[in-house]
Amino acid sequence: RKKAPNAEDIRARKGGEPLVSLTAYTTPMARLMDAHCDFVLVGDSVGMVLHGLTSTLGVTMEMMILHGQAVARGLEKAMMVIDMPFASYEEGPAQAFRNAARLMAETGAGAVKLEGGVEMAETIRFLVRRGIPVMAHIGLTPQSINTLGGYKVQGRDDQAEAVLADARAVAEAGAFSVVLEKVPQGLADRITAEIPIPTIGIGASAGCDGQILVVDDMLGFFTAFKPKFVKRYAELGPLAEAAIAEYAAEVRARTFPAAEHVFADQAPAKGSRK
Ligand code: KIV
Ligand code: NA
């Protein structure tokens, strides 16, 4: 059994075999992906995917810690990275360190991820110099939805230089990798070629050093909306609903439970499992 990679192992994968990652929020889902992913992200997307929030802004430290602990129980081979939730790091480096240290100590995560480029470089440098590996996240940063004005592509036309500057700033500050979300393909390839740390694409380019998707999106469990960059590898939502509908019909028809699901009044003979 290979042991889980750490942040420096991930950094060393720059330019090599693509890094594979997904989000996870629960133990059973973490177990399913453990052998297939290099790292698993406990994303703050948990707020929208599992808690019914309309954005990630309402996600709390407590939610991240509970889901992080659950995911950790399901992982042996993959590294765990955990998102810093909105308002847990933006005030400054000291606040960021306090909350990042708590997330790592209470969940066992090997790194934190936070959103922001040039404006977060000082905070990233502060954390990394004090022992906290940081994965950056630039391009579309959902915690800034209210100032971005929508979930649109980031870095087209004359916006490209700003996203490139963000990529350079987080790499220079010591981030061990960076998520590029909803960045146009050519720009994602240019960033990947220019910076010395792995780029992890989501709605970016197959040329990135790795890819990530929200697991409930790619399995077809989360169907409230489907961004263009999501590929549905399965349609488990409709499959689950069909199973629930069948159960409901059988209960109403008294065909469930059947003989094999109920217990006899007489104790079974020794050696029998009934
Ligand atoms: O929270 C999340 O799921 C993420 C990934 C989409 C990168 O940040
Ligand atoms: Na996130």
Automatic annotation (TrEMBL):
Q: Catalyzes what?
A: (6R)-5,10-methylene-5,6,7,8-tetrahydrofolate + 3-methyl-2-oxobutanoate + H2O = 2-dehydropantoate + (6S)-5,6,7,8-tetrahydrofolate
User: Predominant location of this chain?
Assistant: cytoplasm
Chain positions recorded as Mg(2+) binding sites: D44, D83, E115
Q: How is the cofactor bound?
A: Binds 1 Mg(2+) ion per subunit.
According to its UniProt record, which residues of this chain constitute the active site? E181
Q: Identify the residues that bind 3-methyl-2-oxobutanoate.
A: D44, S45, D83, K113
BP term (GO), one? pantothenate biosynthetic process
Q: Which GO terms describe its molecular function?
A: 3-methyl-2-oxobutanoate hydroxymethyltransferase activity; magnesium ion binding; methyltransferase activity
UniProt cross-references to Pfam families, sorted A to Z: Pantoate_transf
Give the record's keywords alphabetically: Cytoplasm, Magnesium, Metal-binding, Methyltransferase, Pantothenate biosynthesis, Transferase
Q: Which domain of life is it from?
A: Bacteria
Q: Which GO terms describe its cellular component?
A: cytoplasm
Cofactor(s) of this protein: Mg(2+)
What biological function has been recorded for the protein in this entry? Catalyzes the reversible reaction in which hydroxymethyl group from 5,10-methylenetetrahydrofolate is transferred onto alpha-ketoisovalerate to form ketopantoate.
Q: Which family does it belong to?
A: Belongs to the PanB family.
Under the subunit heading, UniProt states: Homodecamer; pentamer of dimers.
NCBIfam families tied to this protein: panB, PRK00311.1
What is the protein's given name? 3-methyl-2-oxobutanoate hydroxymethyltransferase
